[in-house]
């Protein structure tokens, strides 16, 4: 397997008032297809910025970001949005579900941007909910589900388009330990049995133990903390 994510000499600056703040400094990184990577670091270290660059939610000030063979640092507007829809499934800490929609409707949302027919969308949604163990909750709205179930719906939504990689920002940060471990086991299963490439930002060392590779970000620099034991 080759690298599915490559960052070359990536630098990221933000403007704060009259000041330019450099968040990432000449960063280089390769992530192999099928990796499960945990990105850790103190608050303000640049780990979420790094995740956003990989997921195409932000662009570097300098350098190259190549994901799934595409120079996404060169893409803008609708082309970048179309690339994200095709290649990246996002999982966030607070689920970001539409409260008035059922689980199946929430999962279907990314497919509305595709040319799939209604019956094809329905089939994909059913499969995604089955994968996360929520086929029997398809008609329930988020308010009728537990936090762990809501995050499973969010994972199903991320999976439904069969993306190249899953990008997770503190996916268990709002869950108790037992529920968090259930979600992490699910991510590990998706990685090991379906070969999904997963990149996860977390502050939780226990969550990082589920990953096969650990990266440490500090003051905009990157240290590969080696691979976890298989």
TrEMBL record:
Signal peptide: none
Origin species: Aliidongia dinghuensis
PANTHER family membership: ABC TRANSPORTER ATP-BINDING PROTEIN (PTHR24220:SF452), IMPORT ATP-BINDING PROTEIN (PTHR24220)
ABC transporter domain ranges (all copies): 5-230
Pfam families listed in its UniProt record: ABC_tran (PF00005)
InterPro entries for this protein: AAA+_ATPase, ABC_transporter-like_ATP-bd, ABC_transporter-like_CS, ABC_transpr_LolD-like, MacB-like_ATP-bd, P-loop_NTPase
Protein name as annotated: ABC transporter ATP-binding protein
Domain of life: Bacteria
A single cellular component GO annotation: plasma membrane
KW ATP-binding (keyword) present: yes
Family membership noted in the UniProt record: Belongs to the ABC transporter superfamily. Macrolide exporter (TC 3.A.1.122) family.
Gene: tptC
Alphabetical list of Gene3D superfamilies matching this protein: P-loop containing nucleotide triphosphate hydrolases
Molecular-function GO terms, alphabetical: ATP binding; ATP hydrolysis activity; transmembrane transporter activity
Keywords: ATP-binding, Cell inner membrane, Cell membrane, Membrane, Nucleotide-binding, Transport
């Amino acid at each position: 397997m080759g690298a599915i994510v490559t960052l070359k000499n990536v630098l990221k600056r933000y403007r704060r008032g009259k000041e330019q703040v450099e968040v990432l400094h000449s960063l280089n990184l390769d992530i192999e297809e099928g990796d499960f990577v945990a990105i850790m670091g103190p608050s303000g270290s640049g780990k979420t910025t790094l995740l956003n660059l990989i997921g195409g939610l932000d662009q570097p000030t300098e350098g190259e970001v190549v994901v799934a063979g595409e120079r996404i640092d060169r893409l803008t507007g609708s082309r970048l949005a179309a690339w994200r829809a095709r290649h990246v499934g996002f999982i966030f800490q607070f689920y970001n579900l539409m409260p008035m929609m059922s689980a199946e409707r929430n999962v279907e949302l990314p497919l509305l941007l595709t040319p799939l027919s209604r019956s094809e969308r329905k089939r994909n949604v059913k499969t995604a909910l089955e994968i996360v163990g929520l086929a029997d909750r398809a008609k329930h709205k988020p308010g009728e589900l537990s936090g762990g179930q809501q995050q499973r719906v969010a994972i199903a939504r991320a999976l439904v388009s069969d993306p190249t990689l899953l990008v997770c920002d503190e996916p268990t940060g709002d869950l108790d330990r037992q529920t968090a471990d259930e979600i992490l086991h699910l991510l590990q299963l998706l990685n090991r049995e379906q070969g999904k490439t997963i990149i996860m930002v977390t502050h939780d060392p226990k969550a990082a133990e589920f990953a096969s590779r650990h990266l440490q970000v500090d003051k905009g620099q990157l240290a590969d903390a080696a691979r976890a034991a298989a």
